[in-house]
Amino acid sequence: MTLIAENTGVQDAVIGALDDTTLGFSNATNGLSYTGGSCANSTVSAGQTCTVDFNYSNTCAGAADMATLPYNDGAQPQIANAMIESLI
């Protein structure tokens, strides 16, 4: 599965390394595991998008989780949240 993240700010967003921990994924509880995408270690210009790829392996229906993308907006670290809902 792929999450498309958009930089809705006015400055470039500098995103560092991403993994299950930085994204807030927990495979043991919600079945989400990070697999890649274009967001990690990238600079996303204002109005542009990048992707976060992940696997969903939980058998529970209706599981949902919040992904958190850490990034720098100017000199300030920020967290962008995105809801991921998986219905089986």
**Into which percentage range does the β-strand content fall?**
over 45%
Main sheet: strands, sense, barrel: 4 strands, antiparallel
- The low-confidence runs, each spanning 5 or more residues with pLDDT under 50, are none
**Strand segment count:** 7
Report the mean per-residue pLDDT as an integer: 82
Class derived from helix and strand content: mainly beta
Strand order of the largest sheet: 4-2-6-7
Shape: elongated
Q: Helical content, roughly?
A: under 10%
**What is the total number of structural domains?**
1
State the order of secondary-structure elements, H for helix, E for strand: EEHHEEEEE
Structural Rg:
13 Å
Q: Number of helical segments?
A: 2
The termini sit apart by 13 Å
What can you tell me about this protein's structure?
- With 88 residues, the chain is mainly beta.
- It has one domain (2-86).
- Helices cover 9% and strands 52% of the residues.
- It contains 2 helices and 7 strands, in the order E-E-H-H-E-E-E-E-E.
- It has helices at residues 20-23, 27-30; strands spanning 2-6, 13-15, 32-36, 42-44, 49-56, 63-73, 76-86.
- The strands form 2 sheets. It has a 4-stranded antiparallel β-sheet with strand order 4-2-6-7, with no helix packed on it.
- A hairpin with a 2-residue loop joins strand 6 (63-73) and strand 7.
- The longest helix is centred in the first third of the chain and has 4 residues, at 20-23.
- The protein is elongated and about 35 Å long.
- The relative contact order is 0.32.
